Amino acid sequence: MPKKEKRILFIGDIIGEVGRNTVRKVLPGIKKRYKIDYVIANGEHLSARVGVEVEKLREMQAVGVDFFTTGNHVWREAGFEKEIGRKNMPIVRPANFLEKKPGHGFRIISTPIGKILIINLLGREGIKEKVTNPFKKADAILASQKDYDFVVVDFHAEMTSEKVAMGYHLDSHVAAVFGTHTHVPTADVRILPGGTAFVSDVGMTGPLNSVLGVKSEIIVERFLSGTGGKFEVSGDLPGVMNAVLLTLDGNNKAIDIKRIDRVVKN
Ligand SMILES: [Fe+2]
Ligand SMILES: [Fe+2]
């Protein structure tokens, strides 16, 4: 009997209440329709503001998200540095912070579709956080690990050139490189020549009529006059969910990657 295909959904940065409600509304139906085996989401804005709160992470687990990656905003919510280190917390933070940080930059997770090595890396171009070379860090992690069936990478980076370059760097070594951080979904989903599935940016899951999740009037004023006040996550509907669906064959080789985007009006 041929081995079963595996389907993994990767959801772009879930932002605040609108993002969480959108996931709650659309994820169960998507899981059923596409027979999804495992769901990973970038959760760096899971809290009501920016950052991660365990309670919100649990809420998203309850509606079907299995594991979370993060990015530059992972430490914004006071207290999460303590929580992330707790046993079996289903989350990774970027592996290449210069300073020593709690939690894990990669994890091998035993799932019904095999052992998945999930790696989270932060880009260097246009990112304030101090990080080491993400390309070399990816190499070091892959060289240090053996006990897995396939690898997925969340490369949380600003610049498309850095993300595309990471795709080629890891091509044939990992099942997928999912770009995140810009919150703007890109149309370049494809399988690279060596067999790695790639997208420059998955996008975001949050308020559609906003500037990357933040109230548009605040950001427009910032560009107009240099002021505009404190960033405030928009609570307006509709909500959008940007995601990509990765399909692997029975031998863990990527055979398809496609966008799954939904807008929820109420
Ligand atoms: Fe983000
Ligand atoms: Fe980010």
Write the layout of secondary structure elements.
Layout: E1 6-11, E2 13-14, H1 16-33, E3 38-42, H2 54-62, E4 67-69, H3 80-83, E5 106-111, E6 114-122, H4 134-144, E7 150-156, H5 160-170, E8 176-180, E9 190-191, E10 197-199, E11 204-207, H6 216-225, E12 239-248, E13 254-264
Parallel strand pairs: 1-3, 2-11, 3-4, 6-7, 7-8, 8-10
Antiparallel strand pairs: 1-12, 5-6, 9-10, 11-12, 12-13
The protein binds fe (ii) ion (2 copies).
CATH architecture grouping: 4-Layer Sandwich
Q: Return Rg in Å.
A: 17 Å
End-to-end C-alpha gap: 45 Å
Note the total helix count. Answer: 6
CATH class: Alpha Beta
- Give every kind of bound small molecule, once each: fe (ii) ion
Give the % helix: 10-25%
Query: What structural class do helix, strand and pairing data support?
Result: alpha/beta
CATH superfamily: Metallo-dependent phosphatases
- CATH topology, what is it called? Purple Acid Phosphatase, chain A, domain 2
Largest sheet: 7 strands, mixed
Inertia-based shape: globular
- Uncertain runs: none
**Whole-number count of domains:** 1
Q: Brief overview, please?
A:
Helices cover 24% and strands 27% of the residues. With 266 residues, it is an alpha/beta fold. Strands 1, 2, 3, 4, 11, 12 and 13 form a 7-stranded mixed beta sheet that branches. A 6-stranded mixed beta sheet has the order 5-6-7-8-10-9, with helices on one face.
